[in-house]
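Run log // design_07
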């Protein structure tokens, strides 16, 4: 009887097991053939973002919904792989897709704790789920996941499966894959990560939001320490490594990934071109675009622009805090961080919240959690705003949001975000390649590209194009023009009464064309334009790339009253620099696909080869000679601090100092600097092109031309060099062979010296 009680239940149990096995077998037989094809992983093509580089291979931009960086598993550091295995699937290389031991262990743990605390999905199962299945929780989905795991294991090697997991898994902050996450959270490549950083990343797959070190630093730290203990438990690291990893303070990036060279305006220009060409595929196919920008030049331009703008800003005083927030006496760092997250970064102008303040010291909290103390010279710029002498709205108090910056000695100082804007562009005049481009003071604040989009009056920086037209017509550098008052017939300037003046309000009387441009004499420029006619000048400037409709044929053209962009000005000055050839500025060198195949490459126009000769090389030579005087002894004489004799250019200042310009060049490099307000207003009475824009140009050229030998020009055929006696001694000047005297058809003069006609015009002048 007792045997029956044992035998029957056993038989029933065996029968049930057989039935269950049979049912499972039938279910597998039905389901397995219907499983998705593995083509998605055997032909794995992740959505790789558009990446943009300088011509020397430095990344300056990235665009795409997903941050990805594909890494071959053989190139992944061993400790990084071990950290992942310790966190997710330590028996990965031993099981066949499903870890039965892990399942049993998880089940026991969950039963003992009376709650689901451990899962048992292997890395292979996670690959199956990420590529093929939804995230719903159901028996059928889990069953399919297990079958897919077996299928994947049967078709792919362990290393290939791990590679798929490594590159596909979502890790928060739009980062997919560990290589992208390393850049996103730490700004590092995989091989640069410490054990502590690897463990932090390895802990993310379980719950990317919950363990995000940016959003949940405390939970992320707990998860990281768990991974570190697991790495030690399985002897992946030593006791010493474990202790060092636990103690290491991580520096997690709170802002979007930054690049070693600031060229965001260039990157945006590339993005627009790529989208126009490839539409949405531009952001997913792994295109690489190599620009013409040079990292050394771009860094020099960025530093020069930031310094020049801030020097201008300091000349005009501190305006006050950006904002003020209420902060409680017991405010926490997290609360302060939350407030600062609302404030845009601006390079090295760091936002901070003031915690305490008096006239001798300011304590402030930074975005990275650091509390700093500012005193001494660091308070100098904002000293008045620490007192009651200012409007309360402009006073720095507890809760004020200010900007701080490290000085040359590493000490913190109060600064501010400038309101003025800027543009800077540098071009190789031999082929038009853009070597540096800064479209504004800060891209995150204002992504309007002032180099390509800002149409402004060029002021006197436009005069060289008028003078070039005059040389073409038969003027010479020694032509004498009267710098005397003018009363302009309204009909000649579009119907308005106009009495033009020189910038300094004085008149020099008879003066040579060379000296007139050197000293930027407005009245002389107008008389020259009257002689050659505005209509001729309007047609002539098209040779430099200017659209005639933006430069009406009135006498005001002589003073740069038309509209230009800084990029147009760079292209125009390139004609002088390269000997008279028109080259088109460009910024994309080549486009490559994800495998490095070249899809497109720019074939630029090159001076002396396939570029069109638009002005006589003699004209370019003589104009360069005259503009060299502007640098040596004229309105751009500050540039002589560079200690070079091969520089030329022209300053420009518009009415009421709305715009400040300097456009200048060396034989192999043209650069244009502009400063002004987006809503035009005066920069200040003394803020001329020489005061506001020229220092930026000097700062850039000093670095860009470092080590570059001085260019020694060769006098073109058809130019006559003649020694002349002047009030400054003997000089050599240059003339067209056929125009060694001013063309008499112009009706200006016949070569009479300034001294000879001085008395004749004295009464009119004075």
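design_07 sequence
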């Amino acid at each position: 009887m007792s045997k029956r009680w044992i035998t029957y239940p056993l038989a029933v149990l065996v029968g049930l097991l057989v039935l269950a096995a049979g049912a499972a077998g039938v279910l597998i037989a039905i389901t397995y053939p219907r499983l998705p094809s593995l083509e998605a992983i055997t032909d794995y093509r992740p959505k790789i973002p558009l990446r943009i580089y300088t011509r020397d291979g430095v990344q300056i931009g990235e665009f795409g919904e997903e941050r990805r960086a594909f890494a071959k598993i053989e190139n992944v550091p061993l400790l990084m792989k071990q950290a992942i295995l310790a966190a997710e699937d330590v028996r990965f290389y031993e099981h066949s897709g499903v870890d039965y031991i892990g399942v049993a262990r998880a089940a026991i743990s969950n039963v003992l704790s009376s709650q689901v605390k451990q899962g048992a999905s292997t890395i292979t199962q996670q690959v199956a789920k990420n590529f093929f299945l939804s995230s719903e929780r159901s028996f059928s989905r889990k069953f399919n996941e297990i079958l897919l795991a077996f299928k994947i294991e049967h078709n792919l090697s362990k290393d290939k499966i791990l590679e798929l997991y490594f590159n596909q898994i979502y890790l928060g902050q739009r980062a997919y894959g560990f290589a992208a996450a390393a850049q996103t959270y730490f700004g590092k490549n995989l091989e640069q990560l410490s054990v502590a950083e690897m463990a932090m990343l390895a802990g993310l797959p379980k719950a990317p939001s919950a363990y995000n070190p940016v959003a949940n630093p405390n939970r992320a730290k707990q998860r990281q320490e768990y991974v570190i203990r697991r790495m030690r438990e399985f002897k992946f690291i030593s006791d010493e490594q474990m202790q060092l990893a636990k103690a290491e303070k991580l520096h997690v990036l709170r802002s979007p990934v930054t690049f070693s060279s600031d060229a965001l305006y260039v990157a945006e220009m590339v993005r627009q071109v790529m989208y126009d060409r490839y539409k949405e595929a531009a952001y997913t196919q792994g295109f690489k675009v190599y620009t013409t920008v040079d990292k050394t030049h771009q860094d020099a331009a960025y530093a020069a622009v930031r310094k020049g703008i801030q020097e201008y800003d300091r000349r005009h005083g501190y305006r006050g805090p950006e904002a003020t927030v209420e902060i409680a006496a017991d405010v926490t760092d997290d609360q302060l961080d939350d407030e600062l997250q609302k404030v845009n970064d601006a390079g090295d102008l760091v936002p901070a919240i003031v915690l305490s303040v008096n006239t001798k010291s300011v304590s402030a909290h930074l975005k990275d959690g650091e509390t700093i103390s500012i005193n001494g010279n660091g308070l100098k710029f904002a000293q008045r705003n620490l007192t009651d002498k200012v409007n309360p709205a402009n006073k720095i108090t507890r809760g004020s949001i200010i900007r701080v910056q490290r000085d040359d000695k590493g000490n913190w100082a109060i600064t501010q975000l400038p309101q003025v804007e800027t543009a800077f562009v540098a071009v190789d005049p031999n082929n038009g390649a853009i070597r540096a481009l800064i479209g504004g003071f800060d891209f995150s604040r204002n992504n309007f590209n002032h180099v390509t989009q800002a149409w402004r009056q060029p002021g006197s920086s436009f005069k060289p194009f008028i003078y070039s037209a005059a040389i073409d017509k038969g003027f010479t550098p020694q032509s004498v023009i009267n710098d005397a008052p003018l009363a302009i017939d309204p009909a000649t300037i579009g119907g308005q009464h106009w009495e033009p003046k020189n910038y300094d309000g004085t008149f020099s009387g008879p003066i040579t064309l060379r000296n007139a441009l050197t000293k930027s004499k407005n009245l002389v420029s107008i008389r020259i334009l009257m002689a050659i006619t505005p209509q001729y000048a309007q047609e002539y400037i098209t040779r430099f790339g200017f659209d005639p409709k933006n430069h009406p044929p009135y006498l005001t053209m002589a003073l740069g009253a038309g509209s230009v962009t800084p990029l147009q000005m760079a292209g125009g000055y390139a004609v002088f620099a390269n000997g008279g050839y028109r080259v088109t500025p460009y910024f994309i060198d080549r486009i490559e696909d994800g495998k490095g195949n070249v899809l497109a490459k720019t074939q630029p126009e090159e001076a002396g080869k396939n570029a069109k000769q638009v002005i006589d090389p003699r004209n370019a030579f003589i104009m360069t000679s005259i503009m060299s005087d502007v640098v040596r002894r004229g309105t751009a004489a500050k540039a002589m601090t560079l200690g070079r004799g091969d520089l030329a250019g022209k300053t420009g200042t518009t009415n009421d100092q709305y715009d400040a310009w300097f456009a200048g060049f060396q034989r192999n490099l043209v650069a244009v600097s502009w400063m002004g307000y987006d809503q035009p207003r005066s920069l200040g009475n003394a803020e001329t092109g020489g005061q506001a824009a020229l220092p930026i140009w000097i700062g850039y050229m000093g670095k860009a031309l470092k080590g570059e030998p001085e260019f020694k020009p060769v006098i073109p055929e058809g130019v006559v060099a003649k020694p002349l006696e002047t009030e400054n001694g003997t000089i050599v000047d240059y003339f067209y062979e056929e125009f060694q005297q001013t063309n008499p058809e112009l009706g200006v003069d016949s070569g009479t010296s300034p001294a000879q006609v001085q008395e004749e015009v004295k009464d009119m002048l004075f």
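The longest helix spans residues 2-31.
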